[in-house]
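The authors assume throughout that readers already know how a fold can be written as discrete tokens. For illustration, here is how one protein appears when written out as sequence plus structure tokens.
>
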Amino acid sequence: MSLLKGLAHIIAVVCLTIVTQVGGIIWILSSITAIRYKKKKRYVFPVIYLAFNLLIVPPIAKYFGREQLPIISSHLKPKNYIYPLLFRNYVDPELKQLLEHTAEDLKYHPMVITYLDANFPFFDGFPLLPHLSHNDGKKIDISFQYLDNDGKPTNKKPSVSGYGVYVKENGTYSTKCRDQGYWQYNFPKYLTFGTINDLELDKNNTAILIQKLLEHPKSQKLFIEPYLKDALSLNHYSKIRFHGCQAVRHDDHIHLQIR
């Protein structure tokens, strides 16, 4: 039984480290604390986890060149609280400044910048799975803007996670990449965690959002599907690139990175 418990602890540490970067350390600390003070770990772990999430990690992350994005904000906020809870809302200070300035510029539309996965709080090169990059504080995924069933702009998104609901079910590069053997290209459709709203892409406001993001001198690249670059009349922006078949589809979100 002790061997099984030990194996369970190892699995928990590995999984929490992969998903949150620091969760494995919190699990170990919680286990030690529970034993030391004879408390149940199912109570100790949530308390210590929230303490790290809200109080301990944010100031330490600054020494690693990362800052936490706003959690409760009117014009720049996460798709849901899962991203902050999983420590996936950390970015380079210059990227945070870019996003805050863009959100300030867009508040008169009005428009909310909704972010998805950003980066972990510590260490360059630590992978934020399932992404190929997002490991240096300089990348972030942002939701498109959408229209509701009445054709009016809405801050709602089509899926729980913000990923996986494509603007066009069978885009040109979707077929091309799959035909070349890149099976993972459509994988985000399995990461929706539920489709909750039937919405249509707001082409006008999505184009405005992208333009504002690219106006900042620190913006380096922005990934969307090539057919969307045409549909949004953004062909003259050289910073908008095709991400390649080795990645996943980008007609469910925007990927932005800075220099």
The mean pLDDT is 94.
